[in-house]
Amino acid sequence: MPTSTSARLAGQFALVTGASSGIGAAVAVALGAHGAAVAVNYGHDADGANATVKTITDAGGTAFAVQADVSKEDQVQAMFQQAIERLGGLHIVVSNAGIQVDAALVDMTLEQWQKVIDVNLTGQFLCVREAARTFIKRGMQPDVSKALGKIICMSSVHEVIPWAGHVNYATSKGGIMQLMKSSAQELAPHKIRVNSIGPGAIKTHINTAAWDTPEAEASLLKLIPYARVGEPDDIGQLAAWLASDEADYITGQTIFMDGGMTLYPGFAAGG
Ligand code: NAD
Which residue ranges does UniProt annotate as crossing the membrane (predicted)? Predict the structure, then answer.
């Protein structure tokens, strides 16, 4: 967890979805450590969300938990309303919630396909749309940030790397790329920045089986030139910087944070 007390995001209000565990929790904690007050969204895991809130408040920050299923329009709208009422507005939205429901293509049910698209892609659309509406309605606050608002979508290396056995997940992340870029193009004149973070392998619940035994980790490391599996706080610190005015000229980009996973490591020895 971060120890920085820099006030890079002082006076800003943030909402992070899926912040009861993993990357979302680390992003919420990092934003809090950098001075933002944070609405910590969770789907079902209230204990996890409360733990994230406690980490932020124990460090002197401001945070509260807010329940919503990001795939449900009415719940997303109610979540934004609650965050705005509790915090007084929003400047940063990190759309992070995501799931995997894996199956071979030939075995994948429509339900397995739809569930992942609903949470990972429709959930992102609902949050990006609501964030833009919220920022535009509030108007510019030049003393708080150079941008009207900042949106960060949690994508994946699988927005560009195909993934057999995970066609629903990889499709959702490929979709996020165009959701993010098209939204960034449309919202730039409003001075809203929209970007994605594309994590590689990060140690969280979503992929425990890929790193929790020495054999699994050794196999995973063959895909990572930098030779370590990522930690949630790697992503948290990037999100805090990307949301700050130090990144004010960045919009419409996916920043891969993957220890080189997108460098086609299979070609390192000549292919
Ligand atoms: P995680 O399982 O710890 O976190 C996912 C979070 O999303 C959980 O808190 C979960 O409760 C929440 N969530 C799921 N469905 C929800 C819903 N309908 N409404 C609200 N919240 C919901 O896993 P993670 O690795 O921290 O995943 C976070 C994001 O990072 C996901 O979008 C995932 O695709 C992405 N990602 C993770 C990795 C990795 O290696 N861990 C790599 C690339 C991308």
Answer: none
